[in-house]
Amino acid sequence: MVPAVNVEWPIIAERIFSPGQEFWRALVTTVTIAIIAQLLGIVLGLVSALAGLSRLLPVRLLSGAYVLIVRGTPLIVQIFFIFFGANLFFGFSLFPREVAIAGLTVSGAILAGIVALAFNEGAYMSEIIRAGIQAVDPGQMEAALSVGMTRPLAMRRIVLPQAARVIVPPLGNEFNGMIKNTSLLAFIGVYEMFFDAEVHYSTTFQPVEYFLAVAFWYLVLTTIWSVVQVQIERRLNPAEQMEETGVMGRVRRLQWGRAH
After folding, report:
1. Do residues 33 and 114 make contact, with C-beta atoms less than 8 angstroms apart?
2. Is 101 helix (H, G, I), strand (E, B) or coil?
3. DSSP assignment of 194-242
4. How do residues 85-142 score in pLDDT, each as one tens digit?
5. Cα–Cα distance for residue pair 15/74, rounded to 1 Å
6. Rounded CA gap, 112 and 226, in Å?
């Protein structure tokens, strides 16, 4: 019979309430990588989505191949290929050991991790953005073209703002996933939260305590973002903001109705 695990609760409490400077640096690294990779992923996704809606067949095929390959292979494989395999494939060091950016020294592993996460996220955002664009009534584009707008201008000013209401909810879920996916970068030596837990576990041989604590911190980050996401979605949907009770709620609903 397997003996019960003797959990050291003081260690968990310490890792939650006073984890130390190394952990805080790891947390900042986790959040920074997640934000940068998500922003780059959105840009890649937008380019891929527009390419997928292009009238040119080669452009559509290129977008489709990108989405198919990235979504059809594990993220950890993509991370390893970009960090290790790309150097062998191209014959030169794609990511040097350290890079100086705006006066800051950034490790090549972090840059490779950001590229890998952004590259992966772009494929998923491509489908989300494409679905959001297609959810907008095609008549909106036709009306914009009829008043003299170019197609890119109409897309930027008419279609994409309306598509944002469809895009934002799944985008928020993707960012939650991005925060958790940063833990995979520990396997290429990025000192983020999971790596910090691994370092302490390897010296104390108490995995339950350290991994429970780091799970708590991931939960904190994703919960904070979920609250932010709800506020963003409410701002993008003025009708929900009018769902208030009392006199002020009725006044605001009346003002909304007159304006529209």
Report:
1. yes
2. strand
3. HHHHHHHHHHH--HHHHHHHHHHHHHHHHHHHHHHHHHHHHHH-HHHHT
4. 877 777 777 787 777 777 777 888 999 999 999 999 999 999 999 999 999 888 888 8
5. 31
6. 27
> 79-107: buried (b, 16+ CB within 10 Å) or exposed (e) per residue?
bbebbeebeeeeeeebbeeeeeeeeeeeb
Give dist(CA 179, CA 170) in Å, integer: 14
Backbone angles phi, psi at 136, to 5 degrees: -80, 135
Note the pLDDT tens digit of each residue in 70-80.
999 999 999 99
The highest-confidence range among 5-9, 55-59, 82-86, 155-159, by mean pLDDT, is 55-59
User: CATH number of the domain at 9-259, please?
Assistant: 1.10.3720.10
- The two structure tokens encoding residue 149: 């707008």
Q: SS3 sequence, 235-251?
A: HHCHHHHCCCCHHHHHH
The domain locations on the chain are 9-259
Higher pLDDT, 249 or 155: 155
